Amino acid sequence: MDAINSYIDHMFRGLPKTDEVSRAQRELQQMCEDRYNELRAEGMSDNEAVGRVITQFGNLDELADDLGIRRELDGVDSSDDAIDLSREEAERFLRVRGRGARLIALGIFVILLGVTQMIWFNAGAESGNPNAISLVLFFIGIIIAVALFIVGGMSLNRYDRFEKHSLRLDESTLHHYREVRESEQGRYVASIVTGVTLIIIGFGVGAVTGLVFNQWGDGNAAEAWASVMPLIISIGVGVLVVGGMRRGSLDRLTSEGDYDPEKRKENDLIGRLAGPYWMLVLVVFLAWGFIGDAWDRSWIVWPISGVLFALIAVSVGSWFGSGDGRKAVRR
């Protein structure tokens, strides 16, 4: 029944939140529950019963008159025309988004790998005299990373139109991806836990080894071990990027999570802030590294910036969730 209730929530999500619509939703849920119990009593499996119920009651346009919500359904703004998506197109969308996520994660890894080798090669070097080879390798890494970002971004841009339109999938396809999304919940949580754990380990390795070797009077060894920190952190960030992008793609297909219609405006604002924000972070990172000769420390800009951006996103979400935020959006 959870799958049926979730499907009904999706059907009513774009309708106005009136008492009449709420009553109709409760009535339809009761009808579906009664029919589901009948089918189970006849010996059908859970999946078969769910599929039969969704087939029978899954078209809100056919049920609108019986439920008394024809006016509300016809009054929904149709300016945002839905895009019809087949199973094959949806699978292609998932593949392309997954490839783009991996390219972006690889770009992050290459950048922090360049920072790692700079710290390693310059351990013990005189201030203001960075190793020339490490500097060349760093810039080569930047070029490779930018290329990866561009290719990954172009892959993701193929589906920009999905961001401004609703997606319309047939009943069986929508039900399939809702089940996929539910079945991958554990994997999504595991990716978050793994990514965050690796980031914490990265910080821990640098802090512990730095403390130990500094106490032994071996500053060069401390710097060398510190070079491992950005490498481990980059792997953790990559896991978060790939896992989050996969989840976001499934959310997009099912109009769940961040792609709930009520959160679309919130996501648009966060997206507009993201570009200038990360460009500023890159400028700070390069300026600190070159001007301050702080390549052994400037990489800290990236994890700190990630935490700050998360706080910004949460703040924007809270603002949109408040009454004042909704009023401001209406204006």
UniProtKB/TrEMBL annotation:
Keyword RNA-binding belongs to the record: no
**Which key words are in the record?**
Membrane, Transmembrane, Transmembrane helix
Stretches of the chain forming a coiled coil according to its record: none
Per the UniProt record, which residue ranges are transmembrane? 101-120, 132-156, 188-213, 225-245, 269-288, 300-321
Q: What domain of life does the native source organism fall in? A: Bacteria
Q: What is this protein identified as?
A: DUF1700 domain-containing protein
* Annotated source species: Gulosibacter molinativorax
What taxonomic ancestry is recorded?
Bacteria, Bacillati, Actinomycetota, Actinomycetes, Micrococcales
